[in-house]
Fold this protein.
Amino acid sequence: MKIESVDLFYLRMPEVLDIGDGSQDSLLCRVSAGGYVGWGEAVCSPLVGLSAWITPLSHSGCHPVIDSVLGAPLNDPSDIAKVYQSVRKNSFYGLLQSDLLISGIEIAMWDCLGRAKSEPIWRLLGYQKSYPKLPYASVLFGDTAQETKQKALAMKQAGFKAVKFGWGPFGTTTVKADAEHIFAARDGIGDDGYLMIDAGTVFKEDVEAAAARLPALHEANVYWYEEPFDGYAQLSARTPKVALAGGEGAHNAYQGKQLIDDGKVGFIQIDAGYVGGISNAYQIAQYANKKGVKYVNHTFTSQSALSSSLQSFAGLAESDISEYPMEPKLLCQELTTNRIELDKNGMISAPDKPGTGMDINLDAVKKYLVQTQIQVGGKTLYTTPSV
Amino acid sequence: MKIESVDLFYLRMPEVLDIGDGSQDSLLCRVSAGGYVGWGEAVCSPLVGLSAWITPLSHSGCHPVIDSVLGAPLNDPSDIAKVYQSVRKNSFYGLLQSDLLISGIEIAMWDCLGRAKSEPIWRLLGYQKSYPKLPYASVLFGDTAQETKQKALAMKQAGFKAVKFGWGPFGTTTVKADAEHIFAARDGIGDDGYLMIDAGTVFKEDVEAAAARLPALHEANVYWYEEPFDGYAQLSARTPKVALAGGEGAHNAYQGKQLIDDGKVGFIQIDAGYVGGISNAYQIAQYANKKGVKYVNHTFTSQSALSSSLQSFAGLAESDISEYPMEPKLLCQELTTNRIELDKNGMISAPDKPGTGMDINLDAVKKYLVQTQIQVGGKTLYTTPSV
């Protein structure tokens, strides 16, 4: 079969706030081939992703992404790799945004192929078995330590054995205030729970400020310390007791591998919707496994994005933990008609269903759709397609 | 003074061909502050750059670039650095294209500031003197070895002592055919001329194929071998006699420094319109100088882009060679009313005039302007401004 059509949808909440919450909009991609339909989401400024799809040719190294995708064969996984390589070859100069856009399209291609072959993506990747993962509830710090504790308690009551707190006030005031949040979180989930802290690159290039939080992180038995900044190796050398985590900014396979080798992270966190798609995520997962580094998905949006991100490491028993988005905006909550629920042991698994196994809710797509039109030189290059 | 307005213009040739020629379109940026006007060009798919300027907010890490630029103070070079840092902080996730767009805007800010202070940019950067550079004519290989020789002869007759041939058929057929082109080029410019070869990453990850060209490159006394692929260090180890060159794909200062340290290039080639602007180019130039690596501009488009790229290393006597675009399309030829000409010794210099010292030809801007409109959710976010 061949890729007959690709539709891109810009979805967003009625109001988008200037807060650290990436679930307020989405660039949803639909791929159709041979009567089958697949869906994927790119973690990407939606309008800029749309533009990369249909932007006019600039030169042989700067083609619109559509040129490498539409009409391409889609019969087995190697065809997906060929499309990705084609984008890299045809859109490598002057079109950085193509790395993000192709992530969503690549996932949709996998989903479509999986449905055509009646196989989950992880089996098409070569895994025999999908191992359950311990999901960690991924939430923002409260505004006060007390609020952070309440959130931790609520997550524990919802059945989570692991919680990650991130962003919010962390790193913006004093070492003492941060320590209070950390201990409040530990109080809330209890001594047995896994606790992770995500600094959201708040310390920029200030290794000292990032390091000043280490004693409290160690005392509260924090499982990992995520994205204090970009200079991982420097801090890694100072923190044998608290492993570093990072990687959500990787937008190709090379960058993920480099964070493992040069950044010395203990946990590599990859978003399939950002890194170029499921194949790149899979490559990094295999590499991490070989190097003794735990692979973890990065997912802060929908259940569909969660399933896409689980595929690449479903079959790796060693990488046994998974980010679980707990507070996404309604758009992301309503985007699928089914969910990946916690099992009786509090674990989650990649669905054993064709493709991602997630069903897109077309009513939600219609509800959050933003009508968009791009005209260049008198021609309409993009207009929102019908759902 | 403050940045009162920024206008972005999409310019292109009436026909854009699927060839390796980046001078067929341009994203031209105009910055106005305190009654002064500056211009810069981003090396960037123009529509996607425009979109990054006005794309709606996605979250606190994904602001449109306009949010970090409009209304910002512009009184001295530190203000330009602040705007750049602000873009990195506000648009770091989901908006990769912002690295390219800000390159053009940053150059326009420097140009505007230079005109306001009646100083060339290189003097604002701290250089006391602008050293002449040996310009190399940058051209594409001919379709045949004979045509390549004719081109080399023509460049010699135009007063050039250095010529770089790139792209075209190189690397696409046989080692023998490539050798014929190399020797034809050497024949044409004579034994004294500098000859450089640009493989345009044609070998992708094939180190053997790239290495198979080394004997001819060495025999023809080629000054550098540019961008055979991305695995520089591997090839560097095998080619002590032919230095490697690369860097035009660097879109931030870190990447340029990394190519020097890890890629072991002998020449680092930076495009101010791609790397984030003149300040990043300057940082890399200083770093290269300290490490004994020659800094070279990458410029394949207009005379305005050439001046922008010369500023960052104008004051470095050791970095004494400069790319000179010889075959740009009419759009780039007509974009300025003045040019950087070869002096009686066949050398060029960064102009000793305010800003870039180049005057934009508004008639050419009108002639090549592409009317563009972007509408999202019923609002017009971008429409081509008046010239």
